[in-house]
């Protein structure tokens, strides 16, 4: 039986359909759900191609989504997207580099200082050799993936078993080192462990050639949004994105009846809106949690299968500020691994167990006095649930435990952390592929019998650049292009920004 809420909504929809008189072929309307990179990109491209009735509904109180730049210790830091990954074929690089906004960096540069949980620092030549071997193993993963279908963890386990056999003096540290390199690899892939991530993730994902870690110098990743909206470099050319973005407006229902010309959207505050097309750009984590309530009629089974069949992992950053730097060199910084007996002990302490996911601390480009720690997988989720004061104390304790014998570590003057999994508007960080046959292209398919009525964008919908900002932007452009092709006459009506 149809619930009363849906019946009431049906009546409202009929009423709206009867009073709205719009020649949609001449003046199509578009609602975009989400003001992250994909949503901003889609709106910007539509505005530049003659679409005038484009509105963005954003559940949060800010735009940017998983691009989140905020003030900390009188300096702007990125709690989400931080680096530009690759150059050739990367829309972010191609948009920002000509303006001199980016600086090439390399994760492999610098020393690899490795500390165990007893406070011992590994011999530097041994640590550097380990680092070299790990990244060679990562590079060889492509070849392994072509021959095997399964978790990438098997490749790493096979190779490290050989390495430890050839280096017997590391035997007692093998478990801790495997755990560390698992978490380091998950910084990029986003799963809880390398046993969750499929070899198909390696085959399907395409790395853009060029430097893998370009920083924004004294700016932040939010700059790419300014470029998309044409607020940079010439503010006089700004597109009307912000004027047509409604913040703190969570979309709670997308109602799609093919009998009507429009799709209707309701918001948490009771608002009812309609448009010819709706572009959904919410995260895969939100779709996993809310798709059964968000769409009526329910999504097609293939779409649901895609949502449930892709992984959406979590990562976390912890920024620390200091009056003066006490460290001596640059990134990649300080790495930590646990001795077996210490790991067994801390696993018995629920509030401290999250420290097992604290891979490293590194300096922050162009931000003197700041360090950031990185956590991967389920440990980052556990950290988010611990009160801030306790996390702060745990961090100080961990720094002293691992490095206190070698550095004069001063007390941080402040701390800020990300909480992507805890936030209802995100429920995680980014997408990865599981060991099944699900691909992002299925999620990207629009809904509509005669023409696309509900479209999908976001990094999880990009076939080859999932998990990246440039993938999110390209997906927004893709869906905008899909609509632009439907209304070729609008190209003669392009928005002037002069």
Explain the overall architecture.
This protein has helices spanning 4-19, 37-47, 91-96, 124-139, 141-147, 153-166, 174-189, 199-204, 223-228, 284-294, 301-309, 340-346, 377-384, 388-403, 440-444, 469-486, and strands spanning 29-33, 53-57, 69-72, 75-78, 113-116, 245-246, 251-255, 263-267, 272-275, 277-280, 295-296, 310-313, 315-321, 334-337, 358-363, 370-376, 414-417, 430-433, 454-456. It is α/β, with parallel strands linked by helices and 498 residues long. The strands form five sheets. The protein has a six-stranded mixed sheet with strand order 5-14-15-16-13-17, with helices on both faces. Strands 6-2-1-10-19 form a five-stranded parallel sheet, covered by helices on one side. The termini are far apart. Residues 1-5 and 14-23 have low confidence and may be disordered.
Question: Brief description of this entry?
Answer:
By secondary structure, the protein is α/β, with parallel strands linked by helices. The chain has 16 helices and 19 strands. The protein is globular and about 75 Å long.
Topology (elements, then pairings):
Blueprint: H1 4-19, E1 29-33, H2 37-47, E2 53-57, E3 69-72, E4 75-78, H3 91-96, E5 113-116, H4 124-139, H5 141-147, H6 153-166, H7 174-189, H8 199-204, H9 223-228, E6 245-246, E7 251-255, E8 263-267, E9 272-275, E10 277-280, H10 284-294, E11 295-296, H11 301-309, E12 310-313, E13 315-321, E14 334-337, H12 340-346, E15 358-363, E16 370-376, H13 377-384, H14 388-403, E17 414-417, E18 430-433, H15 440-444, E19 454-456, H16 469-486
Parallel strand pairs: 1-2, 1-10, 2-6, 5-14, 7-11, 10-19
Antiparallel strand pairs: 3-4, 7-8, 8-9, 12-18, 13-16, 13-17, 14-15, 15-16
Helix pairs in contact: 2-16, 4-6
